[in-house]
Amino acid sequence: MLLSLKGNFPPAILALADGTVFLGNSIGAHGATTGEVVFNTAMTGYQEILTDPSYCQQIVTLTYPHIGNYGVNEEDIEADKVHAAGLIIKDLPLLASNFRKSATLTEYLTRNGTVAISGIDTRKLTRHLRTHGAQNGCILGLATGEAVSQALVDKAVAAAKATPSMSGLDLAKVVSVKETYEWTQTEWKLGQGYGVQITPRFHVVAYDYGVKKNILRMIAQRGARITVVPAQTPAADVLKLRPDGVFLANGPGDPEPCDYAIAATRELIETGIPVFGICLGHQIMALASGAKTFKMKFGHHGANHPVKDLDNGRVSITSQNHGFAVDEKTLPANLRPTHISLFDGTLQGLARTDKPAFCFQGHPEASPGPHDIGYLFDRFTALMQSHKEGQKNA
Ligand SMILES: NC(=O)CC[C@H](N)C(=O)O
Question: Catalytic residues (predicted)?
Answer without folding.
Answer: 279 (nucleophile), 363, 365
